[in-house]
Amino acid sequence: MIAIDYAQLLRLALPEVIVVATALIVMAADLMVLRRCKMRVRFAVAAGLASIGCAGAIARILLAPEMANLLDGLLIANPLTHLVQIALLTLTIFTLLLSRDSTFTEHVGEFVLLILVATAGMMFLAGTQDLLVIFISLELLSLSLYILTAFNKRSAQSWEAALKYYLFGGVSAAFLLFGFSLLYGLSNSTSLTQIAAAIHGPALSPLLAIAIVTTAIGLGFKVAAVPFHFWAPDVYQGAPAPSAAFIASGSKVASFFIFFQVMALGFAGAEGTTSLPHPVRGWVPVLALMAIASMLLGNLVAIRQTGLRRLLAYSAIAHAGTMLLAIVAHTEQSLAALLYYVITYALATIGAFAVIAVVEQQTGSDQLSNFDGLGRRAPVLSFCLAIFILSLAGIPPLAGFFGKFYLFVTVLNAAPGSTGLLWLVVLAIAMSAVALYYYLRVLKRVYVAAPASGAGEIRTPILSQVLMLLLAALVVLLGCAPQLLLRWIESAIRVSGL
Fold first, then answer.
1. Residue 408: is its pLDDT beyond 90?
2. Contact 318, 298 (CB under 8 A)
3. What contacts 24+ positions apart, CB below 8 Å, involve 427-434?
4. Which of 74, 1, 68, 84 is nearest to 335 (CA)?
5. Which of 123, 239, 338, 486 keeps 20 to 30 A from 83, CA to CA?
6. Spatial CA neighbour of 475 closest among 406, 375, 408, 402
7. Is residue 345 part of a domain?
8. Phi/psi of residue 4, each to 5°?
9. Straight-line distance from the first to the last Cα atom of the chain, in angstroms, rounded to the nearest whole number
10. Which residue has better confidence, 1 or 396?
11. Does residue 405 belong to any structural domain of this protein?
């Protein structure tokens, strides 16, 4: 019988406990004290309390860091998991502050509670290498996101998006669970390291091949990779702005991190290659095909979009394809590049949705025509949007440029002289040029197009302006001095290992 140290278990999970306790406090305060207050007051208090709770969890991680591996990966605490959890909590704070001026729901306590519960799920996801905990954490995160998508009861788009998200999510969860069950059958363990030791061999068995494909399907849905991307445009379009920002940022960080761990650790020894003309069967060719399809479809379809939300959705699909290249490389350096890329991408995306929220509130939609002449109608808003858009496009000296550059370098260094990864990088660079075209279309609307007749000044709440300026400053700072984040990431990986 395995002895469990429950005191150690509680210490390791204390940041998550703080987040969940904060969620309950916010819910109780909203139901018992704030119910009769004005909507903006309720959102302000709830977002403030929740942000304080997240800050408390960050303080716990920084001031009393744990180093432990409980029950062979069931719960892990090391500098790498701490870094990812801090990033997730920071993105959650930005999302909560973004929601402060929202009016889309009267159920403020429930909305903030779901944000915090989803955050706790992401934190558990980052702190485990066990199939059971991975699946439970993913479902806790997914169920919260389904409800957050449908939270605007006055919008039929919100209901439709949530239903599609739920149906596709249920199917993907079934595939993921089937793949995990095959891995357990092949290894008699739920630990990623023990699974890798059991499946390692000279040939790829049929059951292992099925497990690779079904696991890639399940996790590919979480990151919106083609052909499992169908939910993303509708969710980005229909969800309330804070929910869409959260789905596009924090959940992407957690999902890509666990995607890398499952493939690099759980399927170690079954990688295969993409070297032409004779690729070797394994999970690397599967993810390479997903990356190619994501970059092509995401960038080409984004050109046709007339709304900024859907443009960002297809852009996210294209970015997912680029980030999959880091998993294909599966080295410590490519993990560092992936984390830098996805964190800076998340910051720029939250900032873009902050701008969308303000424009939508005053114009009624996110159509690109509503951004005509924004540079004259809201100079601060347009300046911040330009920073976020140019970073997503990969323009120096912003964080997006260094993220792409460093990721491409690490992918090429993973297999020097191999044509398999070289042509993937060449394709990614070509698709980046396509992306630049549709991103510049947005800025053309903002700075070149004349505002519509009768369009007045767009008033931006002070807190929203501060939030956007802070996000823009972070994007610029991490582009000009990437070592501030990259050194922390590389040190954490070096101490913790993959």
1. yes
2. yes
3. 427/292, 427/295, 428/295, 428/321, 428/322, 428/325, 428/404, 431/295, 431/296, 431/299, 431/318, 431/321, 431/322, 432/322, 432/393, 432/394, 432/404, 434/299, 434/300, 434/303
4. 84
5. 239
6. 402
7. yes
8. -115, 130
9. 29
10. 396
11. yes
Q: What is the pLDDT of residue 417?
A: 57
Does the residue 177 lie in any domain? no
Distance CA 272, CA 67 (A): 33
Prediction pTM value? 0.95
The answer to whether 246 and 237 are in contact (CB under 8 A) is no
Q: Name the burial class of residue 452, with classes exposed (0-12), middle (13-18) and buried (19+) by CB atoms within 10 angstroms of its CB.
A: exposed
Q: What is the pLDDT of residue 277?
A: 64
User: Residue 370 corresponds to which tokens in the numbers above?
Assistant: 């509503």
- Alpha carbon dihedral 4, 7, 11, 15, in 10-degree steps, equals 90
Q: Point out the least confidently predicted range of 58-72, 173-187, 386-400.
A: 58-72
Q: What is the CA radius of gyration of the chain?
A: 22
- What confidence tens digit (pLDDT) does each residue in 252-265 have? 999 999 999 999 99
Q: Which residues, 6 or more positions from 358, have their beta carbon under 8 angstroms from its beta carbon?
A: 378, 381, 458, 460, 461, 464
Structural domain including 409 reads 271-498
State the DSSP code for 203: S
Structural domain includes residue 115: no
Q: Which residue has the tokens 């959102």?
A: 43
Backbone angles phi, psi at 130, to 5 degrees: -125, 135
Helices (H), 64-130: 79-98, 108-126
CA distance 85 to 223: 18
Residue with token string 């997914």: 142
Residue 157 clears pLDDT 80, i.e. is over it: yes
**Residues for the chain: how many in total?**
498
Q: What are φ and ψ of residue 343, in 5° steps?
A: -70, -45
Q: Tell me how far apart the alpha carbons of residues 314 and 250 are, in angstroms, rounded to a whole number.
A: 18
* Model confidence band, residue 3 (pLDDT cutoffs 50, 70, 90): low
Query: Domain total for the chain?
Result: 1
Mean pLDDT throughout 467-493?
96
C-alpha closest to that of 256 among 352, 143, 343: 343
* Both structure tokens of 269: 């020894």
Q: 């297809």: which residue's tokens?
A: 314
Record the tokens describing residue 408, joined without a space: 């491409």
